[in-house]
Amino acid sequence: MTDSLTALVVGASGGIGLAITQELLQEPGVQRIYATYRNSDHAAALLAMDDERLQTLKVNITSADDLQSLAASIRADQGHPDFVINCAGLLHLSDP
Ligand SMILES: NC(=O)c1ccc[n+]([C@@H]2O[C@H](COP(=O)([O-])OP(=O)(O)OC[C@H]3O[C@@H](n4cnc5c(N)ncnc54)[C@H](OP(=O)(O)O)[C@@H]3O)[C@@H](O)[C@H]2O)c1
């Protein structure tokens, strides 16, 4: 892996996004990870991660305001993500 990579992982509070974030933190070539969560009640494992390369950000991807805040936070951090991994989604709806 190239040195000094920056990643944005959307939907990092659980499942695939959390696993990818954990894997990226094992990579010394990754210098910065922006990892988003929607609900802090579901994000205990992500928020407990202690790594100075990790910045967690609260984002609901259906909110334009949240997306603008996400972009502003990354700009303020002078971050330039090399790749974006979107894991936010819904596999199944609950039964009616
Ligand atoms: N796991 C599989 O085998 C599998 C197979 C095929 C496809 N997929 C797809 O892959 C994606 C991730 O799967 P997963 O198993 O990792 O699911 P998951 O454990 O349910 O995680 C989904 C993540 O998306 C977040 N999220 C959902 N809606 C959001 C929104 N509006 N704004 C911001 N974040 C939102 C959730 O946050 P909250 O905790 O706040 O809800 C959670 O962090 C899903 O789209 C799923 O359909 C998964």
Characterise this structure:
- By secondary structure, the chain is of the alpha/beta class.
- It has one domain: NAD(P)-binding Rossmann-like Domain (Rossmann fold).
- The protein contains three helices and four strands.
- A four-stranded parallel β-sheet has the order 3-2-1-4, with helices on both faces.
- It is globular, with a radius of gyration of 13 Å.
- The model has no long low-confidence stretch (mean pLDDT 94).
- Bound molecules: NADP nicotinamide-adenine-dinucleotide phosphate (NAP).
**Rg (CA only):** 13 Å
> What is the 3D shape?
globular
Query: Oligomeric status of the shown chains?
Result: single chain
CATH first level: which class? Answer: Alpha Beta
Strand order of the largest sheet: 3-2-1-4
In CATH terms, what is the architecture? 3-Layer(aba) Sandwich
Total count of strands: 4
For this structure, the CATH topology is: Rossmann fold
Distance from N terminus to C terminus (CA atoms, Å) equals: 46 Å
Sheet of most strands: 4 strands, parallel
Query: How much strand content do the residues show?
Result: 15-25%
Helix share, percent = 25-40%
Tell me the structural class: alpha/beta
Number of domains: 1
Averaged pLDDT: 94
DSSP helix count? 3
The unique ligands bound to this protein are: NADP nicotinamide-adenine-dinucleotide phosphate
Extract low-pLDDT stretches. none
Order of helices and strands: EHEHEHE
